[in-house]
Each structure stands twice: as structure tokens, then as C-alpha cells.
Give the backbone structure.
Amino acid sequence: MNDQIPKSQLPSEAARTRDKRRLVLAEQETRLTSALVLLIGLGLFLALPFVLSIGSVVFLPLVTALLLTILLSPLADRLAKLGLPNVLASLGALSVFLGILFAALALILQPALALFDTLPAITDQVGQRFAELRDEFAWLAVANEEIAAIMGNTGAREVVLATPSLLEEIAFATPSIVLEVLIMFLMAFFMIEARVRMRRHLLFDRASFGSSVKAARVMREIQDRVAAYITTVGLINASIGVVVALGAWALGVDAPIMWGGLAAILNFIPYVGPLAMTTLLALFGIGTADTVLIGLIPAAAYVVLHTVEANVVTPSILGARFTMSPVMILIALSYFTWIWGVPGALLSVPILLTLTAFFDHIGRPNLVGFLFGEPLFPSESMGGGVEDEQAGPSTKLTGQT
């Protein structure tokens, strides 16, 4: 039996040429589409900060309310399973969060107000310590002046602009802050209350069963990751606050509860928060201790504690599921801090974790491959879901060093 294909059935040279031409055109079309998507994404990335910053009164409460909804929806679901109506369950979940928030602020603000009267004396002593250090290194200033005289540089005239005082800035900003906070909590309440309808809409209003399954996976993964991360990190930071408070009490530092609360809250901000806490402890210690070395002991003890927590405790508890590149964390931190300031710094890590969980399911752009001629979005399946998590570790986000 002859298995060879007759020559009449083989594709002609012209047909093969047309097929190659189609493949080249399809590849060029894919490259052009990928380039357009990349340029549009880059433009949005550069323009988004200005839009979000100008409209912060709208966008900041909205983003915060969305994150609170993701965080508090599991608690509302548990309360609803106990027999509470949906409205009461939503209100109860939000009330628990507000109770924890107000308790934490009370632990910090009450001792801080008590220490406010001693702030001028502390400031004066810190100034004296730095003046002593400046006198010890006065030869550097003399050398700098001699170098400036040799180079022919003359002192420039300084222009000092009058700016509002701190109290004036707080008075001007208070009404706007109160309005944004009220809008945020109202949005969060209505979003939590509407969570069941939103889930039903995402699941049952899709065109196919596959898209419904993917929507359910995305929604569950985002909620599980963000809620688990914030809850776990909150417990870790609360433990850090307790240890710092006990350490401050043992070292004789004034208002140990305040320092513990500050350590717990600032530890939510990766890198910058612990650095700010170290600086505050160092300045307060120098301003209250007899010598500089003794004043630096609380700051040094906190640095040791944070090093152990960031490199041993937090990674072992969170595991590989929340791991992410420190570069991405710093980019998100600087990006959202630039847009919204301190609130943006607090929200940067949860926003980054939410976007990571979202792109794990819809597919991540192949930016590195695109630079070498590959499509921006690979053609293979982009669904990541639960099966991918079982095959290997997903992404983690310690936000620590």
C-alpha cells in the first residue's frame, strides 16, 4: 500500500507563500496591538496620579471603602450566618472595625496630649545635643568656608516666604478630612450591605459558565488574600506594639502605651514606617536622656526587634503566598504616597496585593518578552485560579526588610 501523498494534493509554492505571508501579517498585527496597549497603559500610569490627586476627595474615600469592603465582608458573612439581618450584619462588621480603630487612636492620643507640655523642653535639649555635636565638628565648617573662598563662591541671599502655621493648616484641613472620612464609612457600609447582590451579579449575569467560574475565582481570591494579609499583619503589628510598650516601660521611657501604638500603626507602612519610628525614638531619647548614647538605646532596641520581626517572624507566618518583589513594594509605596500622602502609604500594600490577585487570574502583561519580540499578552491560558495555587507558591507581600 502506497502511503505517499500524490503531488497533486501537496500545497503549491504559491499557497505556502500565502500562508507565510498570513503568519507574518498576524505577527505584525499582534505586535502592533501589543505596542498600542503598552503605550496606552504607560500613558494611563503617568496620567493617573494627577487625576487621582486632583480628585482625592472622591477617589481616596472610594478606594478606602473598597478595601474595607474586601476586609470586612467575611466578618459580615459570619454575622449573617448567626441569624442577623444583612443590614445589621454589615453595620456590626463596620462597628467592630471602628471600635478597634478608635481604641488604637485613644491609646496613642491620650498619652501624646499628656506629653505635649514637655515638648518645648525636649526640643531644647535635642537642640543642645546637636549644638554640642556641631561644636565638635566645627573644623568641617571652617574647611568648607576655606574651600568656598578658594573657589570664589560667595554666600547667596536667602528669601524666606511666609507660610501658614501648623495650627492654621490643621484648621483649614479639618473640615475636608472629616467630610472624606464620613463619605468613606458611608460608602463602606453600603458596599458591605450590597455584597450579596454584587456577588450574584458577578456570578449569574455572565454570558458563559466559564466566565462565571473565573469571576467567582477572582472575587474569592482577592477577598481571601487581602483579608488574610491585613488580618495577619494586623495581629503581628499588634504584637509588635505590645512588645515595644513593654520594652519602653522597662527602659523607663515616658508614655510606653503611646510608643507601642505608634509602633503598631507605623509598621503597616513598609520600610518608611519603621524608619520613622526609629527616628522618633532616637529624637525622644536624646531629648530626655542624660547622654546621647543612653538616649539611643530605645531606638537601637527597636531596630533589633524590627529586624527579627521583618526577616524571621513575618515571613514564616505569611509564607510564600504573599511574597512580592521589594522593588514592586517600593514603587507602589512611592506612587501612592505621591498621590495621597500618608493615607496613600497605608493603602499602597493592600492595593498592590489586590492588583496582584486580579492579574494572576486575568493574565499578566509579558513586558520583558515584549521587548524581545514576543506578544505583550501570551496566547496561552491566562486563568491562574485555585489549580495554580495548588501547583506551587503564589505571590507574597511581606512589605518588610
Remarks:
- The mean pLDDT is 76.
